Amino acid sequence: MSSLTAVSQFRLVGQLESFVMKEGDKVKYVRIKVIDREYWIKISKKLRQQVDLSMSPGTWLEIIGNREPDGKLGLFKLEATTLKTLSTPDIPCATVLSGKTDKSTNARRILVCQKSDCWERGGKRVCQQLEKKLSDRGLGDLVEIQLTGCLKQCKKGPNVVVLPDKTRYSQVKPYQVEELLDKHF
């Protein structure tokens, strides 16, 4: 089974060290010093045209972007989505923001088996109840219901899998949908 990568947002406030260029004229990374640590942050393609290359080392910057795990060593890839110069020095900090990015919210899904065995055992009613309850809670846009092929265990249908937890439920009844949503969302 594949593991999901948790993408979160970060905020760095520190001093510019230098820019790392690609092909001579394109900014690829910005090096920033926060307290006694140096970070290399990749600049997103949209942001590259907006970067002021005349900034001198020591300029105070605030960088907000996405942080994604990179390998098994506990390292992270940092990609800037916002880069601001600060006129007055701020307190240097490196923060992981609790808000999730669009990539991670896409992982919030409920898989419902739509094969005939599960569907006939009440899968259709469970799916309708899920849609109704998510809409009632205002989660209709945040949680996607995805109809899938066989999730195995058809004799124990209807089968439901909640992502990103990868929690599997069998023999789900429409009246249990409320409890299922309370547990996960």
From TrEMBL:
| InterPro entries in UniProt | Thioredoxin-like_sf
**What keywords tag this UniProt record?**
ATP-binding, Helicase, Hydrolase, Nucleotide-binding
Gene3D superfamilies the record matches: Glutaredoxin
Q: Is Hydrolase among this UniProt entry's keywords?
A: yes
Q: Which Pfam families match?
A: 2Fe-2S_thioredx (PF01257)
Q: Which domain of life is it from?
A: Bacteria
Q: Name one GO molecular function term.
A: helicase activity
This chain belongs to the protein called: OB-fold tRNA/helicase-type nucleic acid binding-protein
- What is the protein's species of origin? Aphanothece sacrum FPU1
